[in-house]
Amino acid sequence: MKLGNILLIFCSVLLFSCENVPIKQSKLFSEKDLPEKQLLSGEKFVLEEILNPRKILFKEGFLIIAESVSSKTESAITIIDSNTLEFVSHKGKIGFGPGELGIGYPLMDGLEKGFFWVYDTQQFNFSKFALQDSSQLAVEQIKALDVPFYATKAAWLSKNSFLVEMVDGWKKYYEVSTEKDTLKSLGDWREMFSFIKLPDGIKEVDIAPNVAASIFSSEMKGNPSKTKFVKAGIHTDFIDIIDWENQQILTLRGPVNESPKFSISESVGYDMASFDIRTLTNKYLDVYAGEASFFVLYSGKSFRQISESSNLNRIFEFDYKGNLLNNFRLDYPLYAFTMNEQKRKLFGITADEDPGIVVFEMGR
Q: Superkingdom, according to UniProt (predicted)?
């Protein structure tokens, strides 16, 4: 190959790399930076139609509840009226046939009125459901994205594309079209190693991308206009504020800046992160992305302690510049939550022996 051609290829690669490197921005906060606590008292509702709720989505006056699938579960989704808290319908017939679901979450709010989506991580399908028809089956299904990596998190980015996070690969986020084309990528998980302390004996070079995906596993949601996205870490207390249009990520660290202890072991041919459950605590259990601000559900407790009535969950509210706005203390332990942003009303799934829906009035 001629030297001129080699230089041309090198310059092209360099230019492409420069275009895909985001501006690195980060903010650190601690407990002392949090605003004064505001106590929220909730009212709990238990519905016999809901057996084991795990995820929740508010849309157009309805609460969409995703159930943990078991032998007793015939449908993965329950819809209730958010005003009366009364049962409306079941969706998501369990099964592997056309229009059926293997699992009912993550729940996704699409851009169309009257519909919601489920990313079925068992069958790797995106399933679309009508809010108000009588059928339990999906009205549309998009088969698993034909990309070389397994997508763990997904959110609608536009009418024709998803924002996804992959398990195997160093890029943080990809835009993938419904036609299965990779359109853009943003961020690199290796940047995050500067924020955490690795366990003794483990070096950065020892960590494979799928191990990093476990360390930084999270919940991810987009705001209603799909201009901003928020990813909040479950095992590591970080928050990524993703401005996709401007290709920028602002990473927040806090409030404890604690790194999970783990070892690396092999499972089904892959290196995996094995966490020390004696010291592992949940950080951010869920997130709601509003138009001008977002909310994160902070636990700070282990899975064994998640239902305890002491040191209950908090909700932190931030604007999209990473500024803390509010610090709410809840009087019920929660697994997940959603919001009617217009009415400043919060709906949570309780993490107790008799799980139900709890409603909090947040005020203005």
A: Bacteria
Q: What is the dihedral of CA 200, 203, 204, 205, to 10 degrees?
A: -160
DSSP string, 135-195: --S-SEEEPPP-SSS-EEEEEEEETTEEEEEESSSSEEEEEEETTS-EEEEEEEGGGGGGT
Specify the CATH number for the domain of residue 133: 2.120.10
Q: Which domain holds residue 173?
A: 25-33+52-281
Cα(362)–Cα(347) distance, integer angstroms: 10
Q: Per residue in 230-287, pLDDT tens?
A: 999 999 999 999 999 999 999 999 999 888 999 998 877 778 889 988 889 999 999 9
Look up residue 228 and give its two tokens: 């901003």
DSSP code, position 229: E
C-alpha of 261 from chain center? 22
Cα–Cα nearest to 27, from 317, 239, 283: 239
In a domain, 263, yes or no: yes
Which has the closest alpha carbon to 249: 165, 293, 188, 158? Answer: 188
pLDDT tens, 117-160? 999 888 888 999 999 999 999 999 988 655 444 677 889 999 99
The pTM of this model reads 0.89
